[in-house]
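Notes from the 1:1 (GR / supervisor)

We went over the backlog. Supervisor wanted to see one worked example end to end before approving the batch request, so GR pasted a single chain during the call. The sequence is below; no edits were made to it. Supervisor asked that the structure be written out right there so they could see what the output format looks like.
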Amino acid sequence: MPSWPEELTKTATPLALVFPLIPATKVAGYDGAGVGRIKELDFPGGSIHEKFNTKDHFRMVFNGETDVIQRIILGIDFSRLGTVKHFRDMDEATLKDTRAQLAQLEYNIAYQALSLQDTVDLATFLVQATVTMQRFLFGTVGSVGSVPGVGGPVDTLAVTPSELKWIFRKQVVVH
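Structure output shown during the call:
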């Protein structure tokens, strides 16, 4: 049986042909040693990069429209710093130091101590908070104009070393 990275590599190229307009997607799973890994597949081309593993780090990984999640968990949306003139005018060393200081705003969550139910509840809360916030906003004061990109029924899949388990899964009706 091929290893997880080999199987992922075999799968990435056909996916790139089927979904050529998707810039990147993440795939999560566990390797044979029980280490959780997140790989990013870049399309087109099917190149694969490891973004995270639980041996080196144990934290939350999020992508997509993350501004609300960043404000909740990190205390600041780092992707919006460029909209503030003060940050745009900083030299590289000062900006790096400022980002390190702002990183102290992040909530200290003991992710490794969370139960599976706690992680499901946290993920569901963050997605629902994004859906709800996007319903009311139109960008930021410094960057006006945005269209909600998160919404509708949310599927939740728990990935553990021993199983994949649907927690919430919408029903698709085919006519």
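Supervisor's comment: The longest strand covers residues 24-30.
Batch request approved.
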